[in-house]
Specification:
Prot-tyrosine_phosphatase-like, mainly alpha, 54 residues, DSPc family Ser/Thr protein phosphatase
Length: 54
């Protein structure tokens, strides 16, 4: 799958949520994965969403 975002923020958010929800990664690991793909401004929102169990 290919994803594109001008800043990378939305791609990073999607990667972090995937890591946490679908891959079962710990919060710190999922957030770091998102940051490494450009997660910045959506970091708090992603963190809050990862707190909700899936």
């Amino acid at each position: 799958m290919a994803m594109h975002c001008g800043s990378g923020n939305r791609v990073g958010a999607a990667i972090a949520l995937r890591a946490g929800w679908l891959r079962g990664r710990k919060m710190d690991t999922a957030m770091e994965r998102g940051r490494s793909h450009g997660l910045t401004k959506l970091e708090q929102e992603v963190h809050n969403r990862l707190l909700v169990p899936r």
